[in-house]
Amino acid sequence: MSELERIDHENLSAKAYRELRSALLDGRFTPGQRLRISALAGLLGTSITPVREAIFRLVSEGALEIKAATAIHVPSNSAKRLEEAMTIRLHLEGEAAAAAATKISRRQYLELCALQEDFIEAAAQSPEQAGVLNRQFHFRLLEISDMPMTTSIVENLWVTSGPFMRLFHTRVPVRDLASRDHKHFNLLAALDKRDPEAARKAIQADLKWGGALMIKWAKEMESAAPVIPEADRDND
């Protein structure tokens, strides 16, 4: 019986990890946001222990960080770190887009088109939902590329940049996000023509656009970084 309880506990910890990681991927937290374990446990409907274990796992992966003894925060991410992440993503997602252009089926192409249309609609109504759909678009492209190692690396990079993607979909004017000139449409055109080089250039143009803005905001946050008060250093 004790073994069954242990397995159940491990499942709770794994579930909490997946939920929190998904929230980071989708930009449901903001850069520098403080997370309280007790509050997260309440939202997830579980006890504190599985959430604490999930958080420490995310800390070990660099997705969260501990400040001032026990205060858990979403990383603000230095401009330098974001620049490095974007450099890696430019190369890997460019390769994935080129590969996808040679493998994509008509059904898969239409799936991407539908995701982009949903994104356009969400951009004017819900920045959070727009962020989720944007990630789904990029990750579906990675799946189509059939490059699992590349996909794994890129996904880990998204975990750390996800909070800045929330800022992106909040701060960028709706007219730019919902425009028919959105860079995803250039990518879709390249995929429709099965043109690897055009697909590579299109996804890289998209990443450069978003990356430049996020790096700019990171620099602004660094120059105005607040000092955490002593009274705010307990985590529960």
TrEMBL record:
The keyword ATP-binding does not apply. It comes from the Bacteria. One of its GO terms (molecular function) is DNA-binding transcription factor activity. Residues 10-77 form the HTH gntR-type domain. The keyword Amino-acid biosynthesis does not apply. InterPro entries: GntR_C, TF_FadR/GntR_C, Tscrpt_reg_HTH_GntR, WH-like_DNA-bd_sf, WH_DNA-bd_sf. Keywords: DNA-binding, Transcription, Transcription regulation. This is GntR family transcriptional regulator.
